[in-house]
Design a protein that fits this description.
By secondary structure, the protein is mainly α. About 60% of the residues lie in helices and about 0% in strands. The protein contains two helices and no strands. Helix 1 crosses helix 2.
Length: about 80
């Protein structure tokens, strides 16, 4: 692990200390977990945006999926 210095305003520091005590972890652990959660949320948002743009662009080649129709049929029982 690396040690870094982070500047927090007094109100945020107090809230972090209180949350750490309630969670029974130290401030560093609380901040690490908050950063992990934030980075995960950003990644999910990026993937959702990529998917949204892909769907908005629509299908470019109508023949791209031809030949797969028979694979999409439910088999006879």
């Amino acid at each position: 692990m690396e040690t870094i210095q982070v500047v927090l305003d007094t109100e945020l520091l107090c809230a972090a200390e209180h949350a750490a005590r309630r969670s029974k972890v130290n401030r560093s652990a609380l901040i690490r977990e908050a950063l992990r959660a934030h980075l995960k949320r950003l990644r999910i948002e990026e993937l959702e945006e990529r998917d949204r743009k892909g769907y908005q662009a629509g299908r470019r080649d109508a023949g791209e999926l031809s030949g797969w129709e028979s694979e999409a049929v439910w088999p006879a029982e």
